[in-house]
Amino acid sequence: MSPLSLSHGSVRSAAEVNEAIRALWLRAGGSLSARERAEYELLVVEWAAAIRDEIVKAA
Predict the structure, then answer these.
(1) Domain count for the chain
(2) How far is CA 30 from the centre of its chain?
(3) Tens digit of pLDDT for each residue in 46-55?
(4) What whole-number distance in Å separates Cα of residue 23 and Cα of residue 19?
(5) Range of the domain at 43
(6) Could you tell me which of 36, 41, 33 has the C-alpha nearest to residue 6?
(7) Would you say the pTM of this structure is higher than 0.85?
(8) Is the distance from CB of 9 to CB of 49 less than 8 angstroms?
(9) 3-state secondary structure the chain
């Protein structure tokens, strides 16, 4: 998923993305490979977009 596609809102909730981040760290055993690092960075961008979307909806 590209960061550009996230600029129009996340499909998953922040809680769902947070769970995916936690699962990634568990699978990786606390040390991320280059591929896992790239996946983590995309998840963090998605999580931030979901948080922003939730804040806007709450306002």
Answers:
(1) 1
(2) 17
(3) 999 999 999 9
(4) 6
(5) 3-58
(6) 41
(7) no
(8) yes
(9) CCHHHHHHCCCCCHHHHHHHHHHHHHHHCCCCCHHHHHHHHHHHHHHHHHHHHHHHHHC
